[in-house]
Write a structure and sequence with these properties.
Chain lengths: ~280, ~230, ~240
Amino acid sequence: MSSEVLRGIDPLGYLTTFFREGVFPDGRGLLDEQKLVFKQGECGGVGSSVVSTQGVTVSCTIEASVSLVSDGQLINIQIEPSQQLSEKEAEDFNNLLLPLFTNGSFILRENLRCLDVNGKALPLEWQFLITVKVLCLEGNLLDAVVCAIGAALADTKLPSIVLNHSEGDESAIEKSQIQADYGTIHKLILEEPLMCCSFGVFVDNDSKKKSEILLMTPDIEATSVCRATCSVVIGKGDRIALVRERGRITSFSLLKKMCQITAERRHKLVEALRTA
Amino acid sequence: MIITGTLVAPGDKVLDSIGNYRMGNGLYEANRRIFASVAGYVKVYGHKDKSDNLVQVIEVRRSEDQLENELLPYDGAVVTAKVMAVGLRYRHFFILYLRDHSRFAKCDIISIGDRVYKKRFSALLPKKKLRPLEPELSEPFKNFVRPNDYILAKVCDDAGIKDKFVLSIAEDELGVVLCRGKFGETMKKVDWNTVVSTRTGKTEPRKMARVPQKCMLPSDLKDSTS
Amino acid sequence: MPTIRSNLNIPLTHLSRIEDDQMEAIEMDKRSATTFRPLCVKCGVFGAQDGSGYAEFGNTRVLAQIIGPDGDGKWEEDHAKITVTLKGLENEKQIAEYRAELMSSASSVIFINKYPGKVIEIEVTVLSDDGGVLSAALSAVTLALAHSGIEHMGLTASVHVGMRANEDYITDPSTSESADTLGGVTFAFVPNLSQTTCVSLYGRIPIEATKSLLEFAKQRAIAIVPVLHKAIVNSIKEKQ
């Protein structure tokens, strides 16, 4: 009875006893992976997906519009704030994910050109508005969102564009000259899938060495007692696409381990997609 | 005839009329008929009422485990709570010392068993429920519990107070389980009515909960072995 | 290097489509007046949240989540406070209108006197909108309520019916099917008490036709009841 009482009063003490044994309170090993479930094409737009992992469920919808070739920003990400996610945090995540597009980790800019019926690139580009709705948030948002965006992009089907404007014509392209042909559908050429894993660094104050324990995808309760949390996004060729840390991480070997685990997980995902 | 164990959804008719049954949880009466108000299994069981008669009680519950059934702290449940503040103080400026006229301590219910509630519930701990024998009004609250103490308390039913829960620590197994001193240091138990500060050595009165010896907090264990 | 800026931005839905032969050939399958679109309902979608329900009618998908009853320091009345938030629709006016209907329907069935001083939050998210959002939302909320264990009077069966100029009814029309209707109604009622909780008429329905339209809607709503019931009963079985 007393250990249960501890959970509400002294979560740090309660969780320390479990972490020392190498497990979470629900029996999961500290570095065990969580199941990830995703479903594509259920939520409208040109591409969509719903991803559910470890208490976090997000839906991602991509709306497309056509624009002239320019240097402007092509992708706009909007994570909708909800009861569990404040507006400021949502804005924070938006700004975090945008560089993944501008540095070409998800998709290269030239692959966002509009294609005609024969697959030739036109002087028009696709602009995407990616809307992410958080349906349930009991863990780390980033893991699910990166996967959801990747799945939605993979699901995206775009029509070919018919442009009634000759190549030599220097005048501006008018809206009436652009038509969408749904007879030939193109899919996007994407970069290799990204994998994001979130970790927590827990410091056991009572042990003699003050050891740092690495937790994989900690839930809200565990995150509240961690000294630092870190999310790592790994892309093609085991390249680090993004690292986001909160708190203080002092050990380099822990960072290395986090990247290794994420890269391994990414390999498993790529294998699974290949054989599927 | 309703058979025990039938699965019902809210709105399903359970009985045509209450008959000889007593109504338990999860049911309501409308137009003389008894309907289910939650989704779950119908349960009929015998229960001895106040006049010691055996009555058949019918109710709808989601699971066998009472903790899972109840969404909120229920009457008779033992909960963990934190004392937030002690009632109203009334200062007499003409008298040299402060009189403690507070009759309630405000508490926040944190958890029940191992289920930690997502949002804390406000609760009141009346002065008359601090001890099996009601303490005198003049005995101050601080002899029993002080703000920032964690207590094990039982939820009572008080018809007068509707929107907050009413707690009691009258029984022996209820009372303070963890308290901190002025400097944030843990206080160690001296006996069931006193604690001592591990830093200053000063003793303070508290009503401690008589939990079985083997259920001690790690900090207590550590201190006792050191 | 000078940056090139462009102001041309045309959403895909605004581009004119090239009608090809395939599109012409697909005749909208004339649905009978009484069949619903393919539907899917689930009670209890998330394990963690207090109560959740999902309703899908054709391409309209709505998710409802209930958080509570929770304590709230500021609310000290002797009954519960119910709040409804609706997300996923673009039209502000529609959001306000649907929110009001959902709030009224939920407050009338929940036993608020059993939860004094507590707050019950209902969060409705529209995942995709293809007509009949209000009725799908009402169904999702009723499933979420059943899952959450909050005491209430019973299932709310709701349906969206459209009426054409020739007095033909169409059950659960999608947005394209509603294009040629005069108007319609979203009708919700609690079958065991035979009490209506929502009658939301829109469009230009002649007064003489109203009564038979509501009768028809009620019959259609009764047809939905076994589906909701089964989903709720299955969710309890799964818990065991």
